[in-house]
Write a structure and sequence with these properties.
The protein is an all-alpha fold. Helices cover 71% and strands 0% of the residues. Helix 8 packs parallel to helix 10, helix 9 (169-188) packs antiparallel against helix 10 and helix 13 runs parallel beside helix 18. Keywords: Membrane, Transmembrane, Transmembrane helix.
Amino acid sequence: MTALIWHLVIKISAGDDVVYFQTLMDGRSIWEILAHRYATWSSRMAIEFVLIPLVQVPWLWKILDIIVFTLIPVLLYRLLFLNPEKYLDMECNINKTAGKWLVCAFMLLYPFSDMVSAGWIATTVNYLWPLLGLLYIALLLQKLAQKGHVHWYEGAGGVVSCIFCSSQEQVAAILLVLLFLAMVYSWRRKKSGSLWIYGYAVIDVISLFTILRCPGNGIRSMQEVEGRMPEFAYFSVWEKIYMGAANIERIFVAQVNSIFLIVSAVLAVLVGLKTKNLIKTLLSSVPVFCILGYALIRTGHPWYEKIFIIPKQTAEWNFKDPANWFPVIFLIVTVAGMSYALFCLMKEKLETYFYTIAILGVGLASGIVMGFSPTIYASADRPYIYLYFILMAVCLFCIRQMRGQIRKEVPVLVLNMSAVILGLFCMVNIAETLWMCHIM
């Protein structure tokens, strides 16, 4: 219902949708357009094969995007709650209704207004739709791990999803890690692994090769450097990594991101519930303390602004000034605290812990790699959608793992109050997104 309301209000009147993509169909065939785009601008041929015709029919996009937005929490629920993970030997005492509400709530926490930054149609097809394909492939990998096989039509759907979503650079890298972890899982159990996994890996590697070899990507990068950030041409690798890391810290920590705050708080509470150890709980709460430092302490006195520094969108840094290192230090401490919390929750299953850390790590890397693009700031917050959903998935997985203990030890009143607070966060995001849909 929320997605329907948003899309009824959305106006297709700005961004790449109108300025660029609607003008491409000028008598040329789609293949001519894609060949020209690959040679001069972009390697996302599979995505643009869908995008370019779709921009001409906005009402069809609205219908399809509502379906995509609705299917994402459905797949996330099936991935995390519906299928018992016998291969991880986890407790499966799950209240399915509560799981559905949790997944829907987290979906409504995502700032869908990020999808307007390059035009609603262009941004959703390039970022939101590949996420759906990624989740579908993850679901197939889970089924292969549990049962050893999938139906041919499910596998064929995975091939289509792989071709489409691996056209997006960040998703191609995340998918490669997922497939590698699936292979490692099979090898550790002395299994050869399904041919579907190797087939998806071949498609993904081919896609990555076409991305790296695309002449259009190089041409676009040079034009973006010249037009947006001339200094970028002189940045070292470390400066680019710093820029990418500082931008993650700005978006998720310094700006007191609601999803990051909720995920951090939930993990800390779960550690306290499981370990009953004050020191471990406090160490797991470090991410919460960092966020609260920006939300509360920073506003107490001007002096604290010298510590809780909000990174600016800039291309100049004085690395001799220790203050420029505070944002990255906060990010490192925050990630370390979150990693420690996950260790406390999964130390009995170290294999699960390493898989989780690998997925969380590739999510962070998908954000840091934006430092290697001169459009890091022009792209706004839309490239961080994958980190958002990886954080959500990790949090939901931990809740699922602890569900039995939560029901036994947490008072109903506390659970109800938590649900109300989570609902308030969702309502605020729904209202903000509705306003963005109206004005953009």
